[in-house]
Design goal:
The chain has 8 helices and 3 strands. The protein is mostly helical and 171 residues long. Strands 1-3-2 form a 3-stranded antiparallel beta sheet. Helix 1 packs across helix 5 and helix 3 (51-58) packs across helix 4 (62-70). The longest helix is centred in the N-terminal third of the chain and has 24 residues, at 2-25. The termini are far apart.
Length: 171
């Protein structure tokens, strides 16, 4: 059963990337429909994807994915009370989209490294803030970020609070 779940997540990741790429060549009305379907599929995956289907979709081993995670290049997510971490879904999708683009253009070596660099350059590989993080996770985040990163995070939180307040919701 575990293997089927991984293969389903792997397939779902690839389907979402295929839809995103097809939407780039589609007319505006078809593009909106493709993005809506891709968004619905994305919501099925949740906040994170286990490492095995993420690595499988990227065409690398779990050990290679762990290498990128340990370097801080690929953000992970760990639910409170567990020791197992998984990869953030949006990070995997962004990375998979870059890998697909690189392979389509004929790049055969250092594909993952190039894709990680391109996604980081676009500013899309940042770790998302999660509620209820443990003190150890908060400390690790503090130690691995710069003052500028922490300032950006504070600004993002302030913007979220302002949007909530504008919608009539209290934070």
């Amino acid at each position: 059963m575990e293997g089927k779940r991984h293969s389903a997540a792997d397939v779902r990741l690839r389907q979402i990337v295929d839809l995103r790429q097809a939407s780039a060549a589609a007319d505006p009305s078809a593009r909106a429909q493709l993005w809506r379907v891709a968004r619905e599929l994305r919501l099925e995956l949740g906040d994170s994807v286990p490492k095995l289907p993420a690595a499988s979709a990227l065409g690398i081993s779990v050990k290679a994915l762990d290498h990128w995670v340990s370097r801080g290049a690929v953000p992970t997510f760990r639910r409170p009370g567990t020791n197992r971490s998984s990869v953030e879904t949006d990070a995997v999708l962004d990375l998979l989209e870059e890998v697909a683009d690189l392979r389509r253009t004929g790049v055969a070596s250092a594909v993952i490294a190039t894709a990680v660099g391109r996604v980081e350059d676009k500013g899309r590989m940042r770790r998302k803030l999660r509620p209820n993080e443990s003190a150890a996770e908060l400390r690790r985040t503090y130690e691995t970020t710069t003052a500028a990163d922490r300032l950006r995070i504070a600004a993002e939180l302030s913007a979220v609070q302002a949007r909530l307040a504008a919608g009539g919701l209290r934070s």
